[in-house]
Amino acid sequence: MAVPTAAAVNGGMLKMGSVSQAYIESKAVKETRSLISELCRQFYNLGWVSGTGGGITMKVHDTCIPKPQQLILMSPSGVQKERMEPDDMYILSGEGSIISSPSPKPNPHKPPKCSDCAPLFMKAAILYDIDPIFDVAYHMRDAGSVIHSHGIESCLVTMINPLLKEFRITHIENTLYENELTDSLVKAIEAYPKTTVVLVRNHGIYIWGDSWISAKTQAECHHYLFDAAIKLHQLGLDWSTPDHGPIQNVKGFSSVNSRINVTKAGTVDSSYKIEPYPRCIVLDIEGTTTPISFVMDVLFPYARDNVGRHLSATYDSAETQDDIKLLRSQVEDDLKQGVTGAVPIPSEEVGKEAVIASLVGNVEAMIKADRKISALKQLQGHIWRTGFENNELEGVVFDDVPEALEKWHALGIKVYIYSSGSRLAQRLIFGNTNYGDLRKYLSGFFDTAVGNKRETQSYVEITESLGVDKPSDILFLTDVYQEATAAKAAGLEVIISIRPGNGPLPENHGFNTVNSFLEI
């Protein structure tokens, strides 16, 4: 006799009227229940389903019933997998609807809950009361069994390189709730039609096969391979190739915390040696992260055109009075040294307008000469702040910069900015770029307060500030040969940035060069 809809079965509830109670209590169903209990205990001992995580589901093998219509048994979520009994399983139709739920157990046991992974095992477009990963696996891959492991190996292997999107088998990014993984799982399966495994970064793995034997065998093999890859990585050996030789990468930095010497962009020295990643990267801005044209054609003109307006609007503020004080001191030195464009700044008694007019003249001359002096850079930063706040300015970086910053950040490399522009100006540029706020990838900012960028002592000061063991732990990127020479003299590793609009370099300059940060 068929079980009526919503009738009780062993304390649970039915939702399908086409399945007889005799079949639910048949030998095939009972054997599948017992098998899942046994496998969960085994997987618990292997560390795959500890802490109530993970699970397994399989179809009831019955040659008399077409495979798409065979019942599916699923271990519940949030229970101690090693203590499950055969009656603890959910029974689902071949389409994914829950037919029978296990009976609740007394305290301290929690009420039974169908796995959050169910729609991932089936197919999310059909039903949402089960984990969509089960749904996807059964309906897209005609699986006979699906295993979800939280084994530590499957988590760690996705962390070897946070930027990789595949580990020969594919892996996808984790989400807050497992049923939100459905779309990315579908895309992974569509991209890799023959795959039977999908890793979820920092979470676990989903494995399926045409039978529980196939799924179990693949689960064991993949966990073994993950463990082997982790151990090879720990030994400094390349887990991604059959030879397992020393880790190398022709782009300069490998995916597993090592680097090789390069002679120039895109080529490799035949006598390369493995070196550790830099602990820190220090970046210049103009001509390195940002086009020179943005600085020369946008920022400088904005500061020049708005210096009078800014000084008039903020003249009595403590900040602007400090700016004026610095400018007075600088102009006095310039006049003594006969610097072109320097004009005397009258005293306050002469009047605000006269003081501002002389300040504007001096600032315009300083900007025209592109002078790298603190008095000018501090005032420019305050003027630019107004421009960014009023949406009159937007920072510009080269297209490869955001991706590189994200990559270095993910690898644990601290990135700093060293520019002749004030630290305020630096924060404004990177906080308001054409790619959004990039400051989350930056650990700090240096300006000429540590010294002139063409002086070796400046890089000594930066090295001491960053607290590295040795100067060579720092990689400095700049477009200026004199800055590169000064940094190299301080012991830093140096790469020169080749960008559109940058000035020519001396022949035989002796530095490695890159046209994009992605070459590093």
TrEMBL record:
Pathway membership of this protein? Amino-acid biosynthesis; L-methionine biosynthesis via salvage pathway; L-methionine from S-methyl-5-thio-alpha-D-ribose 1-phosphate: step 2/6; Amino-acid biosynthesis; L-methionine biosynthesis via salvage pathway; L-methionine from S-methyl-5-thio-alpha-D-ribose 1-phosphate: step 3/6; Amino-acid biosynthesis; L-methionine biosynthesis via salvage pathway; L-methionine from S-methyl-5-thio-alpha-D-ribose 1-phosphate: step 4/6
Q: Which residues form the Class II aldolase/adducin N-terminal domain?
A: 34-230
Its catalytic activity?
A: 5-methylsulfanyl-2,3-dioxopentyl phosphate + H2O = 1,2-dihydroxy-5-(methylsulfanyl)pent-1-en-3-one + phosphate; 5-(methylsulfanyl)-D-ribulose 1-phosphate = 5-methylsulfanyl-2,3-dioxopentyl phosphate + H2O
Q: Which GO terms describe its biological process?
A: L-methionine salvage from methylthioadenosine
Known EC number(s)?
A: 4.2.1.109, 3.1.3.77
One GO MF term: methylthioribulose 1-phosphate dehydratase activity
Q: Name any cofactors this protein relies on.
A: Zn(2+); Mg(2+)
Per the entry, the cofactor note is: Binds 1 zinc ion per subunit.
Keyword presence, Lipoprotein: no
Which SMART domains does the UniProt record give? Aldolase_II
Q: What is this protein called?
A: Probable bifunctional methylthioribulose-1-phosphate dehydratase/enolase-phosphatase E1
Its source organism is Hibiscus syriacus
